[in-house]
Design goal:
Blueprint: E1 7-11, H1 14-27, E2 37-42, H2 58-65, H3 70-76, E3 80-82, E4 84-88, E5 98-102, H4 115-120, H5 130-134, H6 137-142, E6 162-164, H7 167-181, E7 185-188, E8 191-196, E9 202-207, E10 211-214, E11 217-220, H8 227-232, E12 237-239, E13 248-255, E14 267-272, E15 275-281, E16 285-292, H9 299-310, E17 320-323, E18 327-329, E19 333-334, E20 337-339, E21 345-346, H10 353-367, H11 376-403, H12 411-416, H13 424-432, H14 452-461, H15 478-498, H16 502-512
Parallel strand pairs: 1-2, 1-11, 2-7, 4-14, 11-20
Antiparallel strand pairs: 3-6, 4-5, 8-9, 9-10, 12-18, 13-16, 13-17, 14-15, 15-16, 18-21, 19-20
Helix pairs in contact: 1-7, 1-10
Amino acid sequence: MNKPVLSIVVVGGGTAGWITAGRIAAHHRTNANSPIQVTLVESPNIPIIGVGEGTWPTMRSTLMKLGISETDFIRECDASFKQGAKFARWTTGASDDFYYHPLMLPQGFGKTNLVAHWQKNRTQLNNESFSATVCFQEAICEQGLAPKMISTPEFSSVANYAYHLNAGKFSQFLQRHCCEKLGVRHILADVIHVNSNDHGDITSVTTAQAGNIAGDLFVDCTGFSSLLLGQHLQVPFIDHSDVLFIDTALAAQIPYEHENSPIASHTISTAQSAGWIWDIGLRHRRGIGHVYSSRHTNEERAMEELQRYIGPAFNQASVRKIPIHCGHRKIFWKNNCVAVGLSAGFLEPLEASALVLVELSATFIAEQLPARREVMDITAKRFNETFQYRWQRIIDFLKLHYILSKRTDSEFWIDNRDKSTIPPSLQELMELWRYQAPGDLDFSSNNEVFPAASYQYVLYGMGFETDFSNHAHLLMDKEFAHSQFIKTQKAIAHASSNLPGNRELLNKIYEYGLQTI
């Protein structure tokens, strides 16, 4: 129990496995005579799910830390730029009902809270949405513009951005990079048994093709099966389907109508009768899928809604049905085993939280890797506390989108507003926000996944009203607020004149590449 932690075995590939292996290997320089070795063992017979195509801006930092060129990543993973999410028909269901959750902070955020000024002056502000008034990103998304120019260096930006990517190609790209550049040892083999010592620590996994593979720390990236943490170590699964009702996905890949069709530089989420449809634009195709609650509709009706959304191209599409188990493990690190990705849990794909949890987990493991087994339980305790908090905050934030809807056209939307389905932590925040706009001090941890600004974009995008009458003094800095609104308009004008279209920039990157840092 006091041996050094030198051998890390990642069981399972896919995006979760390779990001984790790569972050550990890069941080500990396993390709430069480091005593630490990272081994990834994955089955040659289990395909990856391959529909996690939306990321957060954190992915830029992850790629940099892995030593990956942004140009290479874009070219080899069919990647495109993502500047946020557009939510259509979530509030009223009307055809002109939409709002944005951009990836940039509101103008002047941290200096003043513009919510009260926006609410009071909406008429003078041409009844623009909150997002359009305080951030220039909605406007450039609506125009189909990219977040940077070909002269902007790799990973730098004019507007903050993340990516849409081909999940299958991304996993293969990461595999090559990790093995060729970072010294990760790759073994293709099926795990048939997990072996533990008297203390309960995993000592090795037995594989059909490569025998026993021993390690000091095991990372479970085996997907929904959770082979190590769930099955072997018997860590229970905490179901959250009583809060988030989505339990099924129908996923398809649709070609563009024309070679030069515009590529949306944001995720589009369009609400349906018992769920919503995602629409993600890559360079050569769109990834479109319908997630829904089987308690509120059936597969036939969900498929009809998907067909209606896609149009004639649906007839040539192959649709995959994917079950969604909404929830997470009670703890994520037990003994010398830590789960990352689907083996830790999964919530619905709204707001693309799956990959960011992989990134955050991989970063924690890499940078807090215990030197010896005797301190691993301390690290595990901190990891569990951190990620239990993060999962709950994500659940709250996702649920927020549903409880603000005013739709009454189906039981799905009505049931989502039932108080018994709303976590007490979210109920408290909603009570607080009746009289104050979301701010950083509303949250008690430095492990927040979504900043207060994200809550503002959703709340006020969906028509929530805050009563500032008891804090009228907050409106005294109206000149500063007015200057921020003007700054937004100037930023919109400047960006509209200078930024290229999303497809135009991607074509130039394929031809010329971006300037390296």
